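User: Sequence in, structure out. Go.
Assistant: Echoing your sequence, followed by the structure tokens.
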Amino acid sequence: AVVSTQSTGLFTARFKNRIVEMVHDKEENVAVQAVKLISFMLNSFDVLENADCEVVYQLVFANNRNISHAAGEFLHKKLLTEDLEEVLKEHRAQRHTRKIREPHIILKELLRFFLENEVSEHGAYMVDSLWETVEVLRDWKSMTELLLSEELGELALNDEEEGALIEIMTCAIKRAAGEDPPPGRGKPRQRELNTKERRQLDADRNSLTKHFIAELPELLGKFSTDEQKIVSLVEIPQYFHLEVYVEHRLNKFLELLLKYLH
């Protein structure tokens, strides 16, 4: 077993550059398997350089669904887990920073990556790539805390980061509400949802509705003078289950929302 591991390590070190090149192969299956092999190398052999990882990271914006999702799994494993391990350990040791939680740190790193790779209107592609693996994309509470809290110290967002988070959050809301994948990432849904899928979609929409019913007016109030941010935020109510306002006697929030939308 030791010999086998050593042999595999020598093989990957020798052919690593070729494997990295193969993530751009014209054959989809070859590219997907190359990304998965690089993920295996990450776990087993210390041969990957930052430049190699960056090549794979860029594929989260690719049109091909299978390639982009494989790249999303790699990005989650490397950038948002392994690379943040020491930061998260340090955070756990500093118990006095209770206002800062681990999802805030992960979201901040995701924002850094997003802004460093800025391409117009590509938020939906990144969200689609990471949707199955990055749980913070469904963490409405942590997102709105980053946007609204004044007590996050070094994690406080600048104007550019606020805009990026609002874009990502809006894309995630659309995905949670069952919107079709972005262009090139698969055909629009051709069939009716089965019972399990319908229940999950209803649960996701109820969850985002209950959260944003209270938080959206506050977000609209904070960013009322920023047209670009407001344009994204005013899209959110169309994904609500509006009956939640009545069922939970939340008419005061509806009135507040309509005030800002007027």
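User: And one key feature?
Assistant: The two ends are 69 Å apart (CA to CA).
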